[in-house]
UniProtKB/TrEMBL annotation:
InterPro entries recorded: GAF-like_dom_sf, HTH_MetabolicPath_Reg, Tscrpt_reg_IclR_C, Tscrpt_reg_IclR_N, WH-like_DNA-bd_sf, WH_DNA-bd_sf
Gene3D superfamilies noted in UniProt: 3.30.450.40, Winged helix-like DNA-binding domain superfamily/Winged helix DNA-binding domain
Transmembrane stretches, start-end: none
Keyword Transcription regulation found: yes
Keyword terms, alphabetized: DNA-binding, Transcription, Transcription regulation
Coiled coil: none
All copies of domain IclR-ED, residue ranges: 67-252
Lineage, opening ranks: Bacteria, Bacillati, Actinomycetota, Actinomycetes, Micrococcales
Keyword Cell membrane: no
The HTH iclR-type domain, residue ranges: 5-66
This protein's name: IclR family transcriptional regulator
Amino acid sequence: MADGEGVLERTLRVLGCFTDDEPAVTATTLAARTGLASSTLHRLLATLVAEGLLTRGPGHTYAIGPRLWELGELSPLSLRLRETALPHMVRLYEATGENVHLAVLDGATPETTSALYVGRLTGRQSIPTLSRMGGRGPLHTTGVGKALLATRDESWLRQYFRAPLERETVNSITSEADLRADIARTRALGYATTREEMTLGNVSVAAALPRVEGLPPVALGLVVHLERADERRLGPLVVQAAKDLHHDLRNT
């Protein structure tokens, strides 16, 4: 049993080396980051490749394999949430022509929690964004993140504010008092907004769904260019899309 636990821990250590910035990593880098002996690492890599959890790439690199993707698609975030959300995301995109994001609250503790993007629609005329499906965004600088923050109770928020609020742009909110005021505004309006707080030139509008049993907290949002950001028009569209999605999720 101890050996099995050791293998799992070593495997997770290896898989944890792959990031947005480095989706392909050499064995040398993996050894340095995991601290595993060369012989142990190469045996583990050979097994992971044979099972399809990793794949070999050019330049003696390794990347996440198709078996991990296949297993990930069995998650309720894919089978239940994203598949149910897709028609609503399409309608929202058709109504606005803007980026549509679907995100959930994810993290072991409030201090380490972020918005995990589980769905994304974009078009040729949509403004470029930093987000990607499977990527993460800070709660305090993204529309979906702020919408999710507004669903949390005071006990959760107190823990969340123990960690510093990192500045992404000159417009990022980095004080607890200001962010709490923004959370109050979000609750009053029914939707959250950001203005150039994650990326300059971008505005986001997002709404959280009421709680759905079996799923983490969910938010749906838009990211638009500052010049096209008509909050009075976009806010109700996002709120209605979130309501419609919640209705369908409750019936699946």
